[in-house]
């Protein structure tokens, strides 16, 4: 029986198959969020304040409000010639005061060089806190743009809600979508399934702490005023300062807890 020889058929062009695994960036982007309180609160505010553009506009208008207050107050104090406006002196020094002459705006408004030349040390002391507050507002605009850009992406990618359809969803529907997104994104690692109560507790944690401190009389709100007796005082400024001391500041006792 003749022997049969087997030879390996070699192809002139060997093809290699490469397998490449790419991670699902959208799925891992919001995995294990450390500060869920802030994250869920921003999701709530993003919906209630009608999206990214409205949030940016609100912060920008707050900044313009401070700038307008500073510029307009300086303009009223230093850039208007009030004697000319009230006809105590003529606009032209060579003319005589005449009650029938019309006062033009160009006669009343002073040039910028004359306005700044009238500045005193008290003017600069007045400008410094307002400029610092304007700088704070400017930093807030960038902070809102940075953080809420991520919330915008979360709505668009994880919740599958484009900006133009945001107003078609109620907050209850948003919560249900967040609960469904937890199964894919695994935002909270403490438990696999989120409930509506979990989300509400995260959003209202700071307010609940503050209410408990007031109810337990840890934070006094009653003040005794002579001849008036006990008066309850809890203004927005006091509330802001308490939040700053207890929750928002760098050395806050309840920070991220």
Automatic annotation (TrEMBL):
GO BP terms: autophagy of mitochondrion; lipid transport; piecemeal microautophagy of the nucleus; protein localization to phagophore assembly site; reticulophagy
Highest taxon in the source lineage: Eukaryota
One cellular component term from this protein's GO annotations in UniProt: autophagosome
Bilayer topology annotation: Multi-pass membrane protein
Transmembrane segments: 52-78, 119-138
Main location per the UniProt record: membrane
InterPro entries: Autophagy-rel_prot_9 (IPR007241)
Keywords linked to the UniProt accession: Autophagy, Lipid transport, Membrane, Transmembrane, Transmembrane helix, Transport
Locations listed in the record: Preautophagosomal structure membrane
Entry similarity comment: Belongs to the ATG9 family.
Protein task: Phospholipid scramblase involved in autophagy. Cycles between the preautophagosomal structure/phagophore assembly site (PAS) and the cytoplasmic vesicle pool and supplies membrane for the growing autophagosome. Lipid scramblase activity plays a key role in preautophagosomal structure/phagophore assembly by distributing the phospholipids that arrive through ATG2 from the cytoplasmic to the luminal leaflet of the bilayer, thereby driving autophagosomal membrane expansion.
Protein name (Swiss-Prot/TrEMBL): Autophagy-related protein 9
């Amino acid at each position: 029986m003749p022997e049969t020889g087997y030879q390996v058929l070699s192809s002139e062009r060997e093809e290699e198959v490469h397998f490449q695994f790419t991670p699902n960036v959208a799925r891992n982007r919001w995995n294990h969020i450390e500060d869920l309180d802030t994250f869920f609160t921003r999701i709530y505010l993003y919906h209630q304040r009608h999206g990214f553009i409205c949030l940016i506009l609100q912060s920008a208008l707050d900044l313009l409000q401070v700038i307008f207050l500073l510029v307009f107050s300086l303009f009223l104090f230093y850039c208007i010639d009030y004697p000319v406006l009230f006809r105590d002196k003529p606009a032209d020094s060579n003319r005589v005061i005449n009650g029938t002459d019309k006062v033009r705006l160009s006669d009343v408004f002073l040039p910028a060089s004359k306005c700044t030349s009238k500045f005193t040390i008290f003017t600069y002391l007045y400008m410094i806190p307002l400029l610092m507050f304007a700088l704070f507002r400017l930093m807030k605009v960038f902070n809102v743009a940075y953080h809420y850009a991520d919330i915008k992406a979360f709505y668009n990618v994880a919740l599958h809600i484009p900006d133009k359809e945001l107003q078609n969803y109620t907050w209850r529907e948003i919560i249900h979508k967040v609960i469904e997104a937890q199964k894919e994104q695994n935002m909270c690692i403490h438990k696999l399934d989120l409930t509506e109560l979990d989300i509400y507790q995260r959003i209202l944690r700071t307010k609940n702490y503050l209410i408990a401190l007031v109810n337990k009389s840890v934070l006094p709100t009653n003040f005794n005023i002579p001849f008036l007796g006990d008066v309850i005082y809890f203004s927005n400024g006091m509330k802001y300062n308490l939040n700053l001391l207890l929750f928002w500041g760098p050395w806050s006792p309840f920070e991220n807890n």
